Structure prediction request, 709 residues.
Amino acid sequence: MKIVSLDPRVNRSSINETEESVVLKKLDQFQTYEVFAQTKRGVHHVHVGSVHAANKKIAVLFAKEQYARRGKCVNIWVVKTSDIATTEYEDSDIFDTLDEKTHRNPESYKVLNRIKEYKERTSK
Amino acid sequence: MELTERHVEGLKHLLYKMADDLLIIGHRNSEWTGMGPILEEDIAFSSMAQDKIGQSLAIYNILHEMGEQEPDTVAFTRNASSFHCSQLVEQPIGEYDFSLVRHFLYDYADAIRFDMLSNSIFEPLAMVCKKFRGELKYHTMHANIWIKDLAEGNEESKTRIQNALNKAYPMALSLFEPSEFDKELSEAEIFSGEAKCRTIWEKEVGTVILEAGLEIPQVSDPEEYYGGRSGKHTEHLQPLLDEMTEVFQIDPTADW
Amino acid sequence: MYGNAYIDPKKANSSLVDGENPEKLAEFEARIARGEKIEPKDWMPAMYRKQLVRMIEQHAHSEIIGSLPEGTWITRAPGFRRKLALMAKVQDEVGHAQLLYNAAETLGKSREDMINDLISGKSKYSNVFNYPAKTWADSAVIAWLIDAGAIVNQLANSRGSYGPYCRALERICAEESFHLKYGHDNVVFLATGTSKQREMVQDALTRWWPPIMHFFGPSDKDSVHSETLMRWKVKMASNDDMRQQFLNMYVPKIWDLGLTLPDANLKKNEETGKWDYTEPDWEEFKRVINGGGPCNAERLAVRRTAEENGQWVRKALLKESETYVTPLS
Prediction:
């Protein structure tokens, strides 16, 4: 039985109500690409999400409309998800910075006192 | 230079055919929203349809400034014989192959026309054409990639695209139906004319078609689909307009 | 746009955490209690994953199916302003589906599997989309009030614990606020317009009120799972609380336009501060959810056809050598 719809588009498509359902196979929706967008020149590209696409050119086409159809954007990168290496959250302790790593921080270099003391000592 | 009455008449004719083309193809392509072949493409195709309607509105606005009626009135109250769109754009959406190929053929024509008109001495039109340059660039980029990828996809997709091309290409020639104003508009540096548009278009779409490994269709009668510019349309346009204006016509004087 | 995921109370297990490693579970729950988000590769209880997949997937289905009732009017929107706005709105719903399917994929279910479950009728989506949009005014009422309901639900869920879902919802909520404004504008134009327009919008409102009252789902305060799901920040507010919030925000706005709602008992109880209303027909709700609504068959058939018609396009571009991995976040 044909679907009779309030939507004229549906009526034009002449759709059968009880047809056998199609089954999408693996990769039917393709692989994914991660999308990075830059809102203006001079700032970093930021990860904004992902798209399913057959190749990187199409991924760019898709990313532009899905992630930059509103608001500002001047540039987009796409990277195939499977090409990205990441750290694991369970290893996030590798990012812990210990308190004794003071030699990396500017505030651990305080020489004014030493200069002052030197000046006092040598001016006598 | 001063625009003569004849120039104004020619300009209006030009603007009407451009705006009507844009409105009708935008309307047709919007039918795919929510029905596209994959979610991401659904979104992209819908954006381009919106762009087309937006472009048509900008041109109806120029016409309004030239003394024609409000864009809503112009778009939602005329019947088919007062529309100047080409017979290409009023065709039903068909399957995705036809819609894609029509988008390819139409958007190249549009981009070429807009590019030429960016240098028109008719300032309001030149400004509008410059403004939409970015949108058109995306549209042709989208068309290029899809046509090539599907032509190089598999046997089925190649055949489908070639068949759609064979069907749509002769229709697309009606976009360049010569007008009685072409010569004067060209001399006045308002618009370089349909023949010139067509020459550039044939070269550009021809390049893409050949690069994609497809064949440029042979057209026996280039004028087969002419007539749209003077209100002669296929049986598809009036039902489209009836549908498009169904709600508006409940009360054309109401604010919707 | 979306209502709450419907969890059948009869299918309740005795516990959601049977067999889970107590140490890991404690760590997981402590992270959530601290207000930290859970990310895709984190350890999570099996039931947390399962509930989230179901919820996000249903939400995604609701977006893609939800594009159909309003899509009914996409070729007939009156005037440029409405035509462009409706196109953009329906497009946004498709965009939301894309974002939400991605979020659900990070939990391990592929988009193919989700679409298959949708078109075979195995998965559910929000019940309201099984009702028809009979006139242009229905599309206005949907855009205003269904999206308003969706915002109440989605704002609550955006404070949930699963990172990818929260991020998707943040973007979605921003776009829904355009939908809400558009819908309100549209309803106001009809309600303040000609008598014909006013009649159209009143009729649409009367038609849509029962599905709107169904939108947040039946009372779930006695549900055995609610406590755990709320502790895990999967469920952020009870269905009744969200319904109250919605009524409180929108009934006054509806009445303000001089429109009426088909429930004589609907009023704010000054003592409790809550809204009294006639209990919606939950038998009808269940009947529609299980396929008995006026548009269930059409919605699925249209979606199935869209997938079918697009198959040759996707097949042509598919490369068997590609590998699918779940999106990162």
Notes: The interface with chain A takes residues 31, 35, 38-41, 43-44, 47, 92, 138, 141-142, 145-146, 149, 243 of chain B (CB under 8 Å).
